[in-house]
Amino acid sequence: MRPHLALIDDDTDFALMCRSYLEREGFTVTWAMDARAGKAVMYHGGVDLVVLDLGLPDGSGLELLRALRATSRLPVIVVSGRGHETDRVAGLEIGADDYLVKPFSQRELVARIGAVLRRSRPPEVPAVLDVGSLRVDTAACLASGTGVALTLRPKEYALLELLARSPGRVFSAAQLLEQIWGASWQPSATVIEHVYRLRGKLARLPVPAPRITTVRGYGYRLDP
């Protein structure tokens, strides 16, 4: 997939040069000449990164960035002729991922875009989690131990997968309630009941099988 960039800049010569170079480097580029069009492009969806000029004919690029940051973590590289420290600091504090002062080379812009895109990508999570003899297939939502399948209810599976993603890490009852049930205000008895049932099912696997350990005063962890 070609990364999709939104280029928001009212300098026609600069924008055409950037778009041509970026497209040759393998990007798809949508160009907007003012804040109104830029906002439409950013919120339309499918954009991977924004290259944003600060001086726009119908508003401030910083205000556009501030509005975006209220609802989105879409990566933004500011490009501007404003090179004073106060301008750079303001852009970064509002939420720019990088700041380039004009003039700059197109090669540097491409390098900066690549670096920001790499930082913004979520870490790859393996489709299959192996914890000792336990295997959790996250794509199929199936768990087994030494070839024996576990019959799990949806919340039991979600609990097991979460623990299996970070074996040895202790999760508090509140963290488990928030991440699995989406409500940390629920009673901790909900977690206790699901842990109890899950332990019983893990205990029926051929030994040695992973176990859920209670860390008193802290929470639960999965030990291989």
UniProtKB/TrEMBL annotation:
One Gene Ontology term, aspect cellular component: protein-DNA complex
Record domain Response regulatory: where: 4-117
Listed PROSITE patterns: OMPR_PHOB, RESPONSE_REGULATORY
Pfam families per the UniProt record, alphabetical: Response_reg, Trans_reg_C
UniProt keywords, alphabetically: DNA-binding, Phosphoprotein, Transcription, Transcription regulation
MF terms in GO: phosphorelay response regulator activity; transcription cis-regulatory region binding
DNA-binding region as annotated in the record: 126-224
Start and end residues of each OmpR/PhoB-type domain: 126-224
Protein name per UniProt: DNA-binding response regulator
Originating organism: Streptomyces dioscori
